[in-house]
């Protein structure tokens, strides 16, 4: 495994992380504790130390599954990131809660669910610019950093096309951002990445496999079942994406390299990116994802010697 310093934070994180939205039960599968344990055990075995979750992946459900594991294993082995700003109300339904008092309650609930005294990276979750511009909120969060409940602040961006929150990340003492970035969506390269590099912000790339389109499993003409979120995508756009993927596989992916592994490594090669956080449903997926660390270039500016 490779490790990089997450921007201006003091966190040395594995370049491959574990995304955990699926543990909240919204993706067609309910995870048992034994399944999460197996995934995290495999991650630990492969040197992965970074977990990304949120209070609204289920009603703190993903956090609770992770917390149960952490309570029985060495908390210090893990860098845990979670998020704030929402309450879960069933499948893909949320209400937004951004007052300082509401977020403090969310923080305490997350600490309890995660069975920990501190959160390594606490991220504003897909907030609007109006919600972001809240001095009372960020002042409260700074106080929680001083108290030791939070070690670092971050921003999980709502949009790839606007850089306002990235541009003002340092103003609210955020040391990292999270953004959608993959071979099919390179929008962050235009404004978000340059702003991040200018401020020495860590960058976490989510959806690195483009919702599975870059997994190598799907050919042009593929269809998706009604319970698959991709079935809700525009059919013409899906057809265009699958054609793009076919061309990428033909022209860019080295022979013998799984496309998913290549796609993760492709993201990691950008000098602004610190780590990728693909979702993992099985220990086998964790193992395949971990192999991407070896494909990424060793001379990355954030790589640790």
From TrEMBL:
NADP-dependent oxidoreductase domain location: 16-297
Q: Please name the GO terms that the record assigns under molecular function.
A: oxidoreductase activity
Name the domain of life this protein comes from: Bacteria
Query: SUPFAM superfamilies this protein is in?
Result: NAD(P)-linked oxidoreductase
An annotated GO cellular component of this protein is:
cytosol
Q: Where is the signal peptide?
A: none
Q: Quick check: keyword Oxidoreductase in the entry?
A: yes
InterPro entries given for it? AKR_Detox_Biosynth (IPR050523), NAD(P)_OxRdtase_dom_sf (IPR036812), NADP_OxRdtase_dom (IPR023210)
Q: Which UniProt keywords apply?
A: Oxidoreductase
- Please tell me whether the keyword Isomerase is annotated for this protein: no
What Pfam families does the record tag this protein with? Answer: Aldo_ket_red (PF00248)
- What this protein is called in its record is Aldo/keto reductase
Q: Which organism is it from?
A: Mesobacillus selenatarsenatis (strain DSM 18680 / JCM 14380 / FERM P-15431 / SF-1)
> What are the top taxonomic ranks of the organism?
Bacteria, Bacillati, Bacillota, Bacilli, Bacillales
């Amino acid at each position: 495994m490779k490790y990089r310093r997450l921007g201006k934070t003091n966190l040395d994180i594995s370049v491959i992380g574990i995304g955990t939205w699926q543990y909240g039960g919204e993706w067609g599968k309910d995870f048992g504790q034994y399944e999460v344990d197996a995934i995290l055990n495999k991650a630990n075995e492969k040197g992965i130390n970074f977990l990304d979750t949120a209070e609204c992946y289920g009603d703190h459900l993903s956090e609770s599954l992770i917390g149960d594991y952490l309570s029985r294993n060495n908390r210090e082995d893990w860098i845990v990131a979670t998020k704030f700003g929402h309450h879960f109300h069933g499948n893909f339904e949320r209400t937004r809660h951004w007052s300082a008092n509401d977020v403090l309650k969310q923080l305490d609930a997350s600490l309890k669910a995660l069975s920990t005294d501190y959160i390594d990276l606490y991220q504003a979750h897909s907030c609007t610019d109006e919600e972001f511009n809240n001095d009372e909120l960020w002042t409260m969060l700074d106080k929680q950093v001083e108290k030791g409940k939070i070690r670092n602040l971050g921003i999980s961006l709502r949009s790839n096309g606007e850089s306002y929150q990235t541009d003002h990340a340092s103003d609210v003492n955020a040391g990292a951002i999270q953004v959608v970035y993959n071979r099919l969506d390179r929008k962050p390269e235009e404004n978000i990445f340059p702003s991040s590099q200018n401020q020495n912000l860590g960058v976490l790339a989510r959806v690195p496999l483009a919702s599975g389109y870059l997994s190598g499993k799907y050919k042009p003409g593929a269809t998706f079942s009604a319970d698959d979120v991709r079935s809700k995508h525009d059919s013409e756009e899906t057809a265009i994406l699958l054609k793009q993927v076919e061309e990428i596989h033909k022209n860019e992916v080295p022979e013998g390299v799984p496309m998913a592994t290549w796609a993760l490594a492709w993201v990691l090669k950008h000098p602004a990116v610190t780590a990728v956080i693909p979702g993992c449903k099985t220990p086998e997926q964790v193992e395949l994802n971990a192999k991407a660390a070896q494909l990424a270039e060793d001379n990355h500016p954030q790589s640790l010697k």
